[in-house]
Amino acid sequence: MDTNSENKTSFFHRFRKSRLFWPLVALALILIFDAIYAPGFFKIGILDGHLYGNLIDVFNNGAPLILVAIGMTMVIATGGVDLSVGAVIAISAAMGAVLINPAFGNELISNEILTQNVSKTPLPLIVLANLGAGTACGLWNGFLVSRAKIQPMVATLILMVAGRGLAQLITNGQIMTIYYTPYFFFGNGFILGIPVAMYIVAAVLLLAWFLVRKTSIGLFVESVGINDKSTYYSGISEKNVKLLAYTFCGFCAAVAGLILSSYVHSADANNIGSNYELDAILSVVIGGTLMAGGRFSLLASVIGAVVIRTFTITMYTIGVPANALLAAKAVLVLLVILLYSEQSRRLINSLFEGKKERRDA
Amino acid sequence: MAANNHEILRIENISKSFPGVQALQNVNFCLKKGEIHALVGENGAGKSTLIKVMTGVEKPDQGRMLYDGVEMKIKSPQHANNIGISTVYQEVNLCTNLSVAENILLGREPRQFGGKINWKAMNTRAKEIMLGLDVDIDVKAPLATFSTAIQQITAIARALEISSTKVLILDEPTSSLDVRESDLIFQCMRKLRETGVGIIFITHFINQIYEVSDRITVLRNGKLVGTYDTENLPTISLIQKMIGRSLAEYEDMEKAKQDPDKQQVLIETNNLGRSGTVQPTDLTLKTGEVVGMAGLLGSGRTGVAKLIFGVEEPDTGDIRVDNQPVDKHSPHESLLRGIALCPEDRKESGILGDLTIRENIILAMQARMGWFKYLNKKQQYEIAQKYIDMLNISTPSSDQLVKNLSGGNQQKVILARWLATHPKLLILDEPTRGIDVGTKAEIQKLVISLANEGMSCMFISSELEEVMRTSNRIVVMRDQEKVTELPGDTTEHNIMQAIAGAD
Question: Which of A226, A260, B72, B271 is the most exposed place for a label (fewest CB within 10 A)?
Answer without folding.
Answer: B271
